[in-house]
Amino acid sequence: MSSTKRLLASIHDVSPRFEAQVDQLAGVLENHLGKGRFAMLVVPDHWGAAPLREAKAFQSRLRNWSDSGIEMFVHGWFHRDTGQHSGAANFKARHMTAGEGEFLGLEEATALRLMREGKALIEDIIGREVAGFIAPAWLYGKGSLAALGQAGFALAEDHWKVWKPGNDEVLAKGPVITWASRSAMRTASSLAFASLARTVLPHALDTVRIAVHPGDVSKPSLLSSIDATLGRFARSHRPARYAELS
């Protein structure tokens, strides 16, 4: 295993709404990467139905996870996209996510407010700075990108790269390996891509990113693929922290 090759893994949609699924995924990641060697993307109020501010027991779990070394990212606010889109943004909203690209169509002022409120809430809970901001579904509009430069986050990520919002310096490139559970066709496509990635990407990328979601635990085929993919890259890439990129 080369010390210059890094494996960055993350659990998305961390929320009281998905506590059992997050527990299961954390166990899978720990089995391959070790304790605290991955990130969690925290949603302050998933779809307006799971306010983190009121979930005291889950707040305690977030603090414990953070204390163990898990990096915490702000992952939108509601995660749900309620905007109206046109052109390229409409295509992204319809085909790249199931109504969850919350920050795709937000105006700069709204995006900045939600980013700052999410940052303050999660930092108050965990007692340290968050690692950065990652938009739901990795989708950003012009307003959200403009807000990122003002919100004070050290890192941001989309599907193709990790960068510093302050100066737009790109820190890592390459597609995120992720899975889809919401349709049979999308599941099959994600399984095929993960299989291809296990063959091609160990030699092609110094930094490999793997992202899992609560819905992944609903299908044994996805869990099997996640297990195989983590095992493959853990042999060639060192489990690392996003902070090491900056």
From TrEMBL:
A Gene Ontology biological process in which this protein takes part is: carbohydrate metabolic process
Fetch the Pfam families from UniProt.
DUF2334 (PF10096)
| InterPro entries noted in UniProt | DUF2334, Glyco_hydro/deAcase_b/a-brl
Look up the domain of life of the source. Bacteria
Q: Which organism is it from?
A: Novosphingobium pentaromativorans US6-1
Q: What is this protein called?
A: Polysaccharide deacetylase
